[in-house]
Amino acid sequence: MFKRLLLCLTEATPREVVEVALRLSSRETEVHLLHVVRLLTELGKKQAEEGFSWARELFRKEGRKTEFHVVEATEVGKAIVSFAREKNCDGIVLGTIPRKGVLGYLTESVSDYVVKNSPCVAVLVRKPGQPV
Hints:
globular
């Protein structure tokens, strides 16, 4: 179990990613839910809080407390790593998206960046049936 766990959320985050974070946490775990946006507005923050309320509810049903954060950044991977350092997290959970085409092999994904630069354990979760 982790003491401070960071769960990274996007609009495409499947329930399976959140469930992995739930299994890796306990009632004593400080759980941070993080959503990174390129431009932060009050309306965008409110929409993110409402849009990810389902994830908070899953934790609440299991007796877990969460803190929801929305941060503005142009480089998502760097924002995640920086946030994990700032909050002294000992674990990060995030989903993966399969890379496609030549561009996918030439560019670094967010999950690749986080794994290479994370100050703690990074757990990558693939959606069932998703290609490697």
